[in-house]
Design brief:
Layout lengths: L11 E5 L4 E5 L15 E4 L8 E4 L5 E7 L29 E6 L11 E10 L4 E5 L6 E4 L7 H6 L8 E6 L22 E10 L1
Length: about 200
Amino acid sequence: MSLPVPQRRAAGLVALAAAGALVLGACSSSPPAPSSSAASTSHTTDSSPDATTTTAVPGGSALTAIGPIPAADLSPAGAAGKAPTVTIPTGPPPTGLESADLIVGTGQEAAPGDQVTVQYVLGTYSSKMVIQSSWTSQPFSFTLGAGQVIPGWDKGVVGMHVGGRRELIIPPSLGYGATPPAGAQGIAANDTLVFVIDLVKIA
């Protein structure tokens, strides 16, 4: 599928009714991407689901701390190559980005600038249900860290390995914000998004 290049940064998903899939678009309300003089790096303190990842620029200033998803809130790992089940946590949504590797891949590691292809399932806190899945249409490809997707993906997919499955809980500030795009049924203003993402390949 050929994806349109966004004309401006936007914090949301654009529904593709004909394809039955969502294209994750970057947003005008999202923070600007780091400049080339302050390229980000990702550091994971541990390989367990409770690991915390910090994205930092040279000089040590943290841009985004990625916290662990509490064990009680994790979706089932499921099986590689099959659509996952997504669990929407029942408690209050987190205020920051949370991540957990449900299946640790053994292939190439995704880094900013890579062209990656993923499968994903999306649920929302507001609907308490799954509202979209690429497994019913086709995989989704984008350039990681290029602002082609919501900031929660640009930050949260870094460090995944091909064959892996990662759950991301994305707060509004790294997703849609207060103004979800038209056609994004099931996503409320200031909604928290729950994605389970499988990294299929890196070009």
